[in-house]
Every structure is written in structure tokens, then in C-alpha cells.
Amino acid sequence: MFRRTFWFSTGVAAGVWATTKVNRKLRQLTPESLAAAAADKALEAGARLKDRAVGFALDVRDNMAQREAELGEALGIHEDPALPAPRRYPAIENTTYSQQKNPYNRNEDH
Questions:
Q1: Is 26 a residue whose pLDDT tops 60?
Q2: Do 72 and 78 touch, CB atoms closer than 8 A?
Q3: CB 103, CB 96: distance < 8 Å
Q4: Residue 28: which residues within 8 A CB-CB, separation 6 or more?
Q5: Which DSSP category does 83 fall into?
Q6: According to the model, what pLDDT value does residue 92 have?
Q7: Is 10 in contact with 16 (CB distance < 8 Å)?
């Protein structure tokens, strides 16, 4: 009689355990749960990517400054810290439409 009770309670415990595991897995596979998990993974991936990009940009900037200093030293160009930084001119001049000459203006000929 004790054997039957033992195996019956073992079967009940195994059934409860299996039912609990299946219900947990079913809850994880609902559309809302999957969407939340995907959103969390996307946020984590975005944060990791941003950290790597910022680190890469800082490394590039540091290496660029180092290389410019090496080239300036090799060419004998030494910037005086008392002078302002050289002005950088844009490659294309920014003009408004009213400042541009319109070759197809009919009123210029009259």
C-alpha cells in the first residue's frame, strides 16, 4: 500500500511540475510577452551600439589629433597657441535664392 501511495504522489508532483512549466512557457510565447522581450533586446542592442560608436569616435578623434601633430612636426609647422585657430572655409558658398543671378529672368532685357 505504501508503494502505491509513493508512486501516486510522485506522479501528482510530476504532473504539477510539468503543468507549471508548460504554463510558464505558454505565457512567454504570448504576442505581448514576445513584443516586450523584443523591445528589451532592441534597447540593449541600441545601447551597446551607441557605446561602441562613441568609443570609436573618441578613438578616431584622439588618433587624428596625434597624427596631425606628427605631420605638423615633420613639416615644421608649429601652431602658436596665442593665435586663433585657422578659419575653415566651406567648400560651397551658402547663398540664398535672391542673391543668385537667374539667367532666365525676362525682365533683365527691358
A1: yes
A2: yes
A3: no
A4: 34, 37
A5: S
A6: 64
A7: no
